[in-house]
DNA sequence: ACGTACACGTGAGAC
DNA sequence: TGTCTCACGTGTACG
């Protein structure tokens, strides 16, 4: 039988011969891909309620989550400022009550709480 | 020009003929890749101080940024709780001062400010 | 000249 | 079934 040609070597599993340089290129490409995948996994681990293990979903949900967190930070900062103001107002009020010297002649110290 | 054989078609720019099915597969693969790239861009737009426009950097810095934001949220929540407690204490104190019924019979209302 | 980063073609598997 | 998703090989470009 005359089947001992090159085709015998490069059959079922892409085992064809390559110059060592090209093989390193192949390995470089593969490990780059694997590295990216690890980072995808690392990112997806930080995202709550990740439905689908798809790359597109990881990126999409990462965007949503970052936006949510930034909103949350903003809301908390505002709330925090309110609380600070409230404390200051209360302290001032206490001071007024303690020293008993406030509010009789001025109209800007009309402090009401809701 | 007598060179109108198939070689004319598949010359310099991979313009070889393909069955329509395979061509759709090619287009599917390409648009999937483009879609991912758009999401990469969308994510990188949310990340401050992104040095390099590399996919690996986007994923890495996204992880860092999410962690930073989560820490920030936690810190703000704690601070907010402190402020809330402070306000409550001040309100209670004010109430005591106003109603003037505190401290004489109970030892747990010993509120001091520093 | 070598390594890194990437887009695309493509085969395979999932749904 | 046809579509979607992905890993990998590979050509290309940049440093």
UniProtKB/TrEMBL annotation, chains A, B:
Segments forming a coiled coil: 59-86
InterPro entries for the chain: bHLH_dom, bHLH_transcription_regulator, HLH_DNA-bd_sf
PROSITE patterns in the record: BHLH (PS50888)
Domain BHLH: 20-69
Keyword terms of this UniProt record: Coiled coil, Transcription, Transcription regulation
GO molecular function: protein dimerization activity
Family that this chain belongs to: Belongs to the bHLH protein family.
Record-given protein name: BHLH domain-containing protein
